[in-house]
Amino acid sequence: MIRLDWLRALGAVLAAVLLIYAGLGLVGHLAQPLAAPLALLSLDGDLLASDAASRAAEVLHRPASDAKGRSEENKAAQDALITALKISPIRPALWLALGALKARSGEPATPALKVSYLTGSVPVEVAFSRVQTVTSTSAAADEEIRLFATSDIRAALAKHTRFEAPLVAAYVQATPAGKSLLLEATQATDPAFNATLRRY
């Protein structure tokens, strides 16, 4: 009888915990302004990832006007990404966002960018963003990343000519290693585009 009562009590506690957990997830989806505080209490990988991606996009696309505010927002966004990735690490776009934020703050971006490649495929738009980040940072000198990025560049050119102009813009802003990467990646597969890059 004692064992049965103990099991009932345990079941009631587990049910209460699950209800609270489900409630936090539901409220987070229904009340977007509360999503960030609730994400801190959540173990839901999707909720944490959504909050982290939102914070990263805010910093990357609308930076703060002052250097101190920019640094604080960058750090907060990086912390949110790291928290989300600890719960749900197989998210290449989040690793890319972390690498981009690290590059923006002058930190080494290569490790996060490498994990972005190793954790799975991404849509071509995300792959292009990854190429932009790689070619504009010291990550372009890493041999392993160069192999991965070459694949992204070739896939973008093979399937989507609309990426030609953005790739030219990426080339103009690239580091010397990034320029070399773009030239090497296009030399065999698209000689005409390679010639276009060499004019810049």
What can you see in these coordinates?
- 32% of the residues are buried.
- Mean pLDDT is 83; it is low at 13-19, 26-32 and 34-42.
- The protein is globular, with a radius of gyration of 22 Å.
- It contains eleven helices and no strands.
- Helix 1 packs antiparallel against helix 2 and helix 4 runs antiparallel to helix 5 (92-104).
- Helices cover 78% and strands 0% of the residues.
- The chain has helices at residues 2-30, 35-41, 45-61, 67-87, 92-104, 110-118, 124-135, 143-159, 164-173, 176-187, 191-198.
- The longest helix has 29 residues, at 2-30.
- It folds into two domains: 1-99; 123-200.
- It is mostly helical and 200 residues long.
Short characterization:
The chain is mainly alpha-helical and 200 residues long. The chain has helices spanning 2-30, 35-41, 45-61, 67-87, 92-104, 110-118, 124-135, 143-159, 164-173, 176-187, 191-198.
Shape summary: globular
Q: Which band does the percent of strand residues land in?
A: under 5%
Number of strands: 0
How many discrete domains? 2
Radius of gyration in whole Å, from Cα?
A: 22 Å
Mean model confidence by pLDDT: 83
Q: How far apart are the termini?
A: 83 Å
List keywords for this structure.
single chain; 200 residues; mainly alpha; 0% strand
Any chance you could write out the topology, listing elements then pairs?
Blueprint: H1 2-30, H2 35-41, H3 45-61, H4 67-87, H5 92-104, H6 110-118, H7 124-135, H8 143-159, H9 164-173, H10 176-187, H11 191-198
Helix pairs in contact: 1-2, 2-3, 3-4, 3-5, 4-5, 5-6, 5-7, 7-8, 7-9, 8-10, 10-11
